[in-house]
Amino acid sequence: MIRKNRVLFIQFILLAAVFFLLSATLGISADKPAEPIKNSYNINCIKVIDRDERGLPLSYPSALFYDALMDEVFVVCGGIRQLVIYTSDFYPLVSAGRGRGIDAVRSCSTSPDAILVCSKIETGEPEAPRRDVVQILDRALLPVDLVEFRGFSGAENFQPIRAQLRDRQLYVIGEGHDGVIVTDPSGEFVKKITPTLKVLGIAEKAFLRSFTFDHDGNLFLLSEELGKVFVFSPQGKLLYKFGEKGGTVGKLSRPRGIAINRELELVFVVDYMRHAINVYSIKGDYLFELGGMGNARGWLHFPSDVCVDRLGRLWVADTFNQRLQIFVISRPTPDETPATIEIRTNPDQELEDDKNPNQNFPTTNPGIEENSLEE
């Protein structure tokens, strides 16, 4: 019996030695971290904004929208329930909240002659003192009208999350409603676009968190629950879908915002739970990610939304760091090579003074930093 055990022990040692040699040769290791995704873009964090026009701290910025007509960025601050507007050179222009009849703002968008705000209004009814609406503001940020939804099931209790007017049609997604509702500007139902995805063999309707359009008018619909982006033509035909649900690099855990860089043909999807932004090609190929949990420049803490301005700069609502971060993403010039990867020693270091707009920041996962080659 003792001899048999000794033989088994020797066999175990030999097998362990073989596994060790194979691991050293092939690079197999249970503790080996995922290889960072190397990309061919230079990325700089050029600005961190944490104050409004009164010099007060931003309070949980949660939604963004770029107004191309005025070249301004609208920021929804959930902690103070109001809008803050910044010019393209990062100047805080004005804030608007309950004093202008705007309360509990969830999101906003703009058209040439109006501003649309998903918010709450007082009803004066004891049983339901407030209700969710889409308010129409003039360019002075004063309420002038409401969108009254009608013609579809649940219209009377519809709770809009995001709304955007395009080609004289209003696209709106709502809490607890699958798909995107399309109405005329007054709220009269026109059609509904509902993506579906088979889960365990059963087709599930997609509940949406955000959406945007590309330069061809294609509609990009983002589902937080499914971790998926669905792309529809202007005629409502599904073209393709991309994204994979999950909590590791390259996947989407709780995606909440989406934006497109038209010049570079990049799609940015902000992942709230992974503290990161996944970057895809316009056709849905995963490229790389930036961010990671932390409070230093370039790191994120539960980010909620993104937008892209006319210069292609990426604005990020870094919600729980209570700030905005602005990134410049560009392709290397012919005399440059793709950026290199190095290990960051302290991802939670305190935010430094905003003196160096080209300070390096992470672009793959927490603990990884990509150095820009720009001087």
Q: Could you explain how this protein is built, in words?
A:
By secondary structure, the protein is mostly beta strands. It has a single domain (51-315), classed as 7 Propeller (Methylamine Dehydrogenase, Chain H), CATH 2.130.10.10. It contains one helix and 28 strands. The termini are far apart. Mean pLDDT is 84; it is low at 18-37 and 339-375.
Reported for the largest beta sheet, the result is:
4 strands, antiparallel
Strand portion, in percent? 35-45%
CATH architecture assignment: 7 Propeller
Mean pLDDT: 84
Distance between the termini: 72 Å
Strand tally: 28
Instruction: Kindly identify the CATH topology.
Output: Methylamine Dehydrogenase, Chain H
- Supply the CATH class: Mainly Beta
CATH superfamily: YVTN repeat-like/Quinoprotein amine dehydrogenase
Element-by-element helix/strand order: HEEEEEEEEEEEEEEEEEEEEEEEEEEEE
Structural class: mainly beta
Spatial order of the strands forming the largest sheet: 1-26-25-24
Number of helices: 1
Task: State Rg.
Answer: 24 Å
SSE blueprint and pairings:
Elements: H1 2-26, E1 42-49, E2 61-67, E3 72-77, E4 82-87, E5 92-96, E6 103-111, E7 114-122, E8 130-137, E9 143-147, E10 160-166, E11 169-174, E12 180-183, E13 189-193, E14 196-199, E15 202-205, E16 210-213, E17 219-223, E18 228-232, E19 238-242, E20 255-261, E21 266-271, E22 276-281, E23 286-291, E24 305-308, E25 314-318, E26 323-330, E27 341-343, E28 368-370
Antiparallel strand pairs: 1-26, 2-3, 3-4, 4-5, 6-7, 7-8, 8-9, 10-11, 11-12, 12-13, 14-15, 16-17, 17-18, 18-19, 20-21, 21-22, 22-23, 24-25, 25-26, 27-28
